[in-house]
Automatic annotation (TrEMBL):
InterPro entries: Prot_kinase_dom, Ser-Thr/Tyr_kinase_cat_dom, Ser/Thr_kinase_AS, U-box_ubiquitin_ligases. GO terms for molecular function: ATP binding; protein kinase activity; ubiquitin protein ligase activity. Residues 121-160, 628-656 are annotated as: Disordered. This is RING-type E3 ubiquitin transferase. Keywords: ATP-binding, Coiled coil, Nucleotide-binding, Ubl conjugation pathway. It catalyses: S-ubiquitinyl-[E2 ubiquitin-conjugating enzyme]-L-cysteine + [acceptor protein]-L-lysine = [E2 ubiquitin-conjugating enzyme]-L-cysteine + N(6)-ubiquitinyl-[acceptor protein]-L-lysine. Residues 355-617 form the Protein kinase domain. It comes from Zizania palustris (Northern wild rice). Residues 633-642 have a biased composition (Low complexity). It comes from the Eukaryota.
Amino acid sequence: MAQLFISYRGYCARKGMQLKEVILDGNDVSKAIVEYATNHGITDIVVGASTRNTFIRKFRNPDVPTCLMKMVPDYCTVHVIHKGKAIQVKAAKAPAPFATLPPKQYSQSSIESDGFARSRGDWKKISHQSSPKANRPSVDRLSNFAKATSRERPLSGARTAPLDDFDDYIDFIAPPRPSVTRSSFSDDVDFPMSMELQPMDFADSMELSTSMSMESLSSAGKDVEAEMRRLRLELKQTMEMYNSACKEAIDAKQKAAQMHQMKVEESKKYQELRNAEEEALALVQMEKAKCRAALEAAEAAQRIAELEAQKRLRAEWKAKREAEERRRAADAMSDTDLRYRRYSIDDIEAATHKFDRALKIGEGGYGPVYKAVMDHTNVAIKILRPDASQGRKQFQQEIEVLSCMRHPNMVLLLGACPEYGCLVYEYMDYGSLEDRLCRRGKTLPIPWNIRFRIAADIATGLLFLHQAKPEPLVHRDLKPANILLDHNFVSKISDVGLARLVPQSIAEVTQYRMTSTAGTFCYIDPEYQQTGMLTTKSDIYSLGILLLQIITARSPMGLTHHVESAIERGAFQDILDPTVTDWPVEEAMAFARLALRCAELRKKDRPDLGKEILPELNRLRGLGQEYDASKVSSTSTTCSSSAPYSYGNDDVSSMP
């Protein structure tokens, strides 16, 4: 045992310190040191740091410095030294109590150096004298000694361990060698800072050092090597276990990554299957919708087919009825001798005094017109010229039309001579509207209220033609020269030789194409003139021009433009017939606007005759009648004249 402290003695002798060794007997090093320090009132403990590495400390019990830091009394300060430096310090928290004699006696071995023998009582007395501030450098230099004694085990059956850092401080020992450790004894020796240290003889220390047994050194080296081999084996096993654990962890991580990848792939496949299912469902819904649409279309087509069949049946029934009506009309027209009187050429010559020029009252497009008396009635006889190319056709058509019609606003056909192309009409005292508007023969002007009544009469007669049965009639040559006036200014439409039958089914909807246009230039419907498409709206255009002439008494050429310009300039009153001085301007403006609507270039923009035109004209006629009633007391015959009147379509400029 004494050999273990030889090197420490030399170190202390070199530093001039007095050393005393105390051996503690116990199973727990930390507990034995704490009990000793408590019983002897030790206030400073200096120990070396543990030589265990972190990995070994993890698997074994706590080391001595750690246990001391936790178990020492509050008045004790603990210094943990490593390589000459304090790496950890636990400061005292309370003052030190008075040191008393310990009740328990420990086995002590006094190993005196250089003749400095001390008794047990003297050592205890010295050990209890502590001064924390005295000889602090000595404590620092002894730190390695405390470190070497920090890993102690019970003495019996224990193996030694190396002292790692002791050689750094023992300069006088020549070769470095592992320091020996102790087992089962406490190295926590109290070194009070106030203890008195006496110088030691250096020669005596060298003698003690040289007397160390080489065998004990060899035995200690073997123990160290065995301990190192054991530690290497443990470290190898531990590293193998660690490597195995790391490998298993890596394998587990790889398996987890594979499982995650499989999960992602399965999720992706599931999503793809779900998307495919949704697409399939959407396709099924689309097909169902198509099927429903097809069924609905089929049902609609079936309904349409049924409706078409019904329409076809109605059309066939209507066609049969119209054919029957046409047959009846044709039969009635063929029996013309029952509807008009037949005259011979001798009767015609006798009435006209063999066509005396003095009785000639006009010249038409297809022949002269004579005034005569037949059956004690004034008549007008129209004679067909032999060289008229279209005269015979118009003559026959006029007989067919007029012989079947009776209307107050249509000229009455009294008779005819079919063999020589002679037509006998009732005589109209005031001649044509054109003559009266132009005041030929110096006749008096027509008052505005009479003009409104004439316009209403013309519209009434035209509506009668358009509503004719079995098929409507389009006049095609409506103009002032073909409007005749009787002695009461009742207007009648004449010269229906150009009238054309239009099928009822297309009279208002579909146009009826003519191969050649007919009528007077300024009165012909522009669309009819350009395309040959004929409808009842073609007569509405002619009526519009005629109405404008009634209130202006001007030429039809560009008349619509002049009236529109006057209205826009606010000079409408200037364009009215100046021979009438008491025009009701507001009513005349409404009359003019209606006429302009009738004269629109596109037939679809023109108003309806029965629903719009005639009601408005009847309203204006009523205003005129009210005006007449207010002037009944002062009314006189102002329109009489002895001048002859032209009759019918008798001007030379008329178109055939």
